[in-house]
Amino acid sequence: IGHPEIFPLVLTTKTQEIFNCRIDEDVTEENCFKLIQKEDIIEDLKTRADISDFYPFKKVVLEYPGEELLVVFDANFQYGKNFYIVASEEAKENLIKPPETAEEEDREDTPEIHPFEPLVPKPWVSLGSEKEVEEESVKDTVTKIKYKISRIRRKFGAPIAFTDKNASHEKESYVECTSYEDKTFSIQMLERDVGVQVVPKVREASIQTKWTYPKNAATQYCPRQLSKEEKAESLSSERMKKFLTSVHLRMEIALQQNEIMNAFFDDWTALAEDKSGSDGKPDVYLKAYQSFTDLQYLKGRTISCVCCHPTICGIIAVSARKQLPYEDEVNLSSKSLLHQSVILFWSFFDLIRPQLVLECPEDIYCFQFNPSDPNIIAAGCINGQVVLWDISQHQKNLPNEKSVADETTDSDNEATAAAEAAAEVSPGVPSLKEVQQSSTEPPLVTSSAVSSTEYSHKKPVTDIQWLPRNLEDNQKGGTSENRGENCLQLVTCSPDCSILFWDIPAIEKPSYEKAHEEKKLYKAPGVPDTSKHSDVGWKPLIKVVYANTEHRYQAKMPKSQSALRAPVKESPYTVMSTSSSKNLEVLENISTNFFVGNEDGGIVYFDWKMKTDTNSAKPTQKYALHTETINTLQRSPFFKDIFLSIGGQNFAIWKEEVTNGPILQSSCSAGSYTAGQWSLTRPGVLFIGRDNGNIDIWDLLKKTHEPSHFQNISKSVITFISPWTVSPEQHFLAVSDDLGVLHVLEICQTLSHPSSNE
């Protein structure tokens, strides 16, 4: 109040570090002023948008006439918050003006002080003031009335005797002053204010129940027994017909009410289930943290897979595919759609553009980072091929901390000046505008290896998994010990009723200098360059075929594996992919069983290991539980023998040694379940996505018949869910939808901190 140019605000620790105004370091109670460039604040608003601390005062910042805004540290919370900004130049000058300068200016404005000199009396000279005093003085001009009171001399000093007497008896002793109307003060009233208000008439009344004389009453509980003739006569009587006609409508309404609502529902118990915290919000919630989308690569497309970088914090990768029904995807799996298929790497510190782009030959259905070396990425395409990338040379483009805005500005200015100088010296060098445009585009990484189309899946690759680093499969169907520390093999599955085991081929790093020297052919805009994705003869190591019509499982190997071991220079996986199973022992005491979900909603549990006598892999169990395609089949991160399957309108939890069915099966929901994941910190919590854009949170410690909480995330179908842990106190859940938007949600403490015996 009284300072309209002052706007209090709260600056978080992150904002204080960005603008160098940290409390007790850059600003103190004595030195509380900080000048910030207006351009830096505008840049922060563009970068962080509505999460910026200056976002509520965006209009004030944009309309500020000066170049620098004054931010003052309010140590005593005079205005209610830890900082406040000054929105006028005049107020800024008054606040930052030094005290010494103000004292000097006061000295210049103060007149000179002369020494005191005693006054010397002078003779009085009349100027006519005595006349004014005489005129203003009050004088008594009214003639006074004189009264003379006399008494007889002899009565002086005589004793006085008082008596009572009626004044009416003496005419001279009593004078009556009667009232009369004075016409001088009789003024006729022409206008007056009158107020009228309606008041209800109040009446007192009393009511009392009339008490009657009590009488004794009895109830007969023995039924009246009627004969058959009496019953027939009663049912056919007119009185019975009239009674049924009169109560028919009332009985019908009562039955309808019983069907509409439960008369025995306990509202008080239902009210107690909705527990709230001290701030009024539910204890179970998912808080929106960030959201990512891209108009160039994700517009009109569906996010098919989401993976977080295993080692770099704040980096998340997504793949997209065409918005087609599942049946159309299977039918168009071999058709090359005219669009650019990529995998995008996003960073939490740059929400505007992706940090890295992986070029793909076809739409990607699923992908995974190598657990031992995250620079190696394997993906399954919609046409059945398997692709590998090596991003080791582009790891510098994936930052794990945010750079300071001032350093970025200085580096951009230096790069701009260098580009302008180079353009002046050499006319063949690109212009300044071209340099700036090229610097903002994320690097495009081509694939290092693509599987052979002939030996790949014939339909989309629906799942891909890396085998454990201590195991290695051979061509004979046996499992050997991998003495290295890297994951060398992966397994893929597809609706073409086949499961393929792959060995990593020798990856050749792309030669960028040679690529720039080669002459590029003209390519129409929007058409993918298929020349980059040539087959290198990569073939699967083992092929397990499941024929739905005959219910047969077979394990097959390709005839030739010569192309699998082509030595390449400077390849980090050349030594790793060398065949080493000749000198290793075949492990006999390990489990080679695994779960597989099919399109019909069935769960198949069988051993892929080939038998020497039958040369086939037979199923151990088969369960027909789900009514639609299995979209999620995941192992619990806490129990190695517990699995989650999701498909159609229900989900189930399986235990590997239990052969009579699932240990927990949910009831059918109103809509379809489209994705799901286990919680990484709580063994009894599941996150399941639905086709209406909701996330169902199942807390099995509280409820097993229905979700304990649900929350709407999107208006479209949830396509993928991926949880990950940043720190023991911060957990996130990445949720993608059918509109090409990735939502990053922060998980509350109730869902991230397990109980002591969970």
TrEMBL record:
Q: Which GO terms describe its cellular component?
A: inner dynein arm
A Pfam short name: WD40
Q: Which residue intervals make up region (Disordered)?
A: 95-115, 422-453
Stretches with biased composition (Polar residues):
434-453
This protein's source sits in the domain of life called Eukaryota
Q: Does the keyword Cytoplasm apply?
A: yes
Q: Where in the cell is it found?
A: Cytoplasm
Which protein, by its recorded name, is this? WDR63 protein
